[in-house]
Amino acid sequence: MTDTTKTTDGRASTRSQELFAAAKRVIPGGVNSPVRAFASVGGEPPFIARAQGPYMWTEDGAQLIDYVGTWGPALLGHAHPEVVEAVCKAAADGLSFGAATRAEVKFAELVCSMVPSMNDGMVRMVCSGTEATMSALRVARGFTGRNKIVKMDGAYHGHADVLLVAAGSGAATLGIPGSAGVPPKVVEDTLLLPHNDAEAARALCKEQGDQIAAIIVEPVAGNMGCVPPEPGYLETLRALTRKHGIVLIFDEVMTGFRVARGGAQERYEVTPDLTCLGKIVGGGMPVGAYGGRRDIMESVAPLGPVYQAGTLSGNPLGVAAGLTTLEIIERDPPYARLEALSARLADGLAYRAAEAGLDFTGNRVGPMLTGFFRVGPVRNYDDAKGSDLDRFAQFHQQMLSRGIYLAPSQFEAAFVSAAHDEAIIDRTLEAAAESFAAIA
Ligand code: PMP
Fold this sequence. Notes:
Blueprint: H1 14-26, E1 48-52, E2 55-58, E3 63-66, H2 81-92, H3 102-114, E4 122-126, H4 129-144, E5 148-152, H5 169-173, H6 184-187, E6 190-193, H7 198-208, E7 212-217, H8 233-244, E8 247-251, H9 263-267, E9 274-277, E10 288-292, H10 294-297, H11 316-331, H12 335-355, E11 361-365, E12 368-372, H13 381-385, H14 389-401, E13 404-405, E14 414-415, H15 422-439
Parallel strand pairs: 3-13, 5-6, 5-7, 7-8, 8-9
Antiparallel strand pairs: 1-2, 2-3, 4-10, 9-10, 11-12, 12-14
Helix pairs in contact: 2-11, 3-11, 7-8, 12-15, 14-15
Bound molecules: 4'-deoxy-4'-aminopyridoxal-5'-phosphate (PMP).
4'-deoxy-4'-aminopyridoxal-5'-phosphate (PMP) binds next to helix 4.
């Protein structure tokens, strides 16, 4: 049921502006998650009325080609009919029981079969990526009896206190390296490493390895914009953590089921001890998950001493959306198509930016890509921060005015979905050529 009518100017017009004004009176900043406020790109956010396939429609009546994909979940495009049907069917049987169900067993079995680190292990469902990472860290600390955790500069793992240190994504965009309200004591055991720096990781482990419970990493960073791992980097983290008895956690909230069926760990053939999932695993519903090695997951209550719980965890609607999404992926793997479409988009953008004489570096891993307005390479957060953010803001506005909806921040990835097609990519490239020319 995708609409093929022409895209239209997606900038906020009267109706969205009225809604934003009303929202700001009752919701902090008018939004329920900071980056949605468009603070770093200027203008006001268009309010979204509905979405289908690769498109969204605004309250002002514009049709947008969407590359945000609800920040990742919409791998199959918006409102896939089978997923919607499964959710409606589940809803008719009751919205939540807070009790064990048949579907959640099937869901857990499927997730474990798809994610290499869970193949012989276990998984626990939660309701967001934030819950997944904070729970995985608690488990790692409980399992090792150590307190220190390590994260990478510019990585974002959700908004749990211990992880809000030098975080990327919205926190990077707004220039908040940490957050007010996080007591220094809470983060004194959170150690930072520059992303993609194997030597720095080696030195830290040599010095403090026996005190470190976990190293958590986005195997393909997405929250400083898309930054692929340097060759050998993930392998080094794997070897170091093994040597020092540290739990290696891959935060695959963004990359899981996206950069490959089994996520980045399948694509790069490095298996962590624990994996955090979110976004696609819930098919658009609030679902996250963490899991991995059986001996580690056996420390989770009620089997073990690490407490973690949730009233709505494994709820029937989330499970229906997630399970159906993964079943569709298994039946009809979209990865070859996603690779081809994304390559067409990334190559086309780089070519058109060069034609306009702009400094531009395209980073891409599968259907996850970011164009940085600077000369490359972009291999860590410092590099990403060196981009011309004003130029990105102008580009964002130009694209939106041509009906192309990109994440309103340089420090995010664009996502191509299986509902996009060549014609849509080519329309996007036409808009990009005009936009680049307008800002050059
Ligand atoms: N980890 C990563 C890698 C993420 O990209 C995000 C969200 N963008 C999170 C964790 C947090 O997930 P959620 O927003 O569902 O809490």
